[in-house]
Amino acid sequence: MYSLTLKHCQPSAFVTQVASSLKIKMNDNALLLENSTATGYFKAVTLENGIQCLCAKYNTKKDFHLHKTPLHYQFFILRINEISHSGNTLMMADRKYSTETFAKSYSALLLNSSEEFSFFASKKSQVKTLEILMPRKWFFNQLHTECPEELLTKFLKIKNRKSQIDFNSHIYRDSFLKVIGHVDKGILDLAYFKKNVNTVLKNFFSTFTSNLYNFLEIEKVKISKDEISRLISVKKYLEQDINLPQPTFSSLTKLALMSSTTLKTKFKKMYGASVFQYFQRMRMEKARILLLTRKFSVKQIGYQLGYSNLNNFTIAFKKEFSLLPSDLSR
């Protein structure tokens, strides 16, 4: 295994450290890999407003582990990955380790330099990565809303619970692949590069600020100890019935002894998702586990989880994990 531990740092410093570790010379903030560890490249690009980018595309010949340790000063990193591999375990972690076994996975993460981050890719994986480093002051200026840092931290922990922010991934994928494909050609057209990076950032902040605003509104809601107990009962009820179609909302309001509006608002504050979203996540997580056993067909699992229409199951699964159920059942 090739393992690298370093502090969160600027892309150019990262490339320099990788080059030093592998004893390879750099050229114009770029590192070409052609050794027993991997083949491919790392490239650092500096833009205006203190924004810096790291582009990478490489095929691993060994298991690869990257660990970034916290810094005292803060900046934010939007990290986009597309990873294909030959069937070995893929693990990606943000604050906590989680194992993924996708044949191909896509993720968009917002990282904070004051928290540690780890990434693992098994050998024979193809990794495409774009990291966009954003200075703290510039980042907050883009939010266009007052958000105390402690609330932003809490929001990110909720969103990154499964190591993936709920972004509309196809919006980012096109511009992301254009950036990687452009650098891959070896000739950097800075204007073209900047245009596609700005497209990624524009769409990111549009989605992110909308989700953040909704979160800030929810945070204003107060929940009593008695309400917490009743909301826990609703959660347990949802979890024990994931093999059946979603319970009616009227049955849940009776169980919670709350109005429909109160249940929707306070459940979302307490669990970071709407009642329906939470129920769907539980069902899709069970589906994922069943698929990975290779003991059941996609059709059998869909019916087992209460889907009479297999197409609806496929759509729900792809929305949750950005891949088809059949991709896991092979």
Question: What would you note in describing this structure?
Answer:
By secondary structure, the protein is of the alpha+beta class. Strands 2-3-4-11-6-9 form a 6-stranded antiparallel β-sheet, sandwiched between helices. It has a 5-stranded mixed β-sheet with strand order 1-5-10-7-8, covered by helices on one side. A hairpin with a 3-residue loop joins strand 2 and strand 3. Helix 4 runs antiparallel to helix 5. The two termini are 27 Å apart. 29% of the residues are buried.
Main features:
six-stranded antiparallel sheet; alpha+beta; 12 helices; 47% helix; 23% strand; 330 residues
From the alpha carbons, calculate the radius of gyration and give it in angstroms: 22 Å
Mean pLDDT across all residues, rounded? Answer: 82
How far apart, in Å, are the first and last alpha carbons?
27 Å
Structural class: alpha+beta
Count of helix runs:
12
Main sheet, how many strands, which sense, barrel?
6 strands, antiparallel
| Arrangement of strands in the largest sheet | 2-3-4-11-6-9
Estimate the helix proportion, in percent. Answer: 40-55%
Quaternary structure classification: single chain
Q: How would you describe the shape?
A: globular
Uncertain runs are 87-102
How large a portion of the residues is in β-strands, by DSSP E? Answer: 15-25%
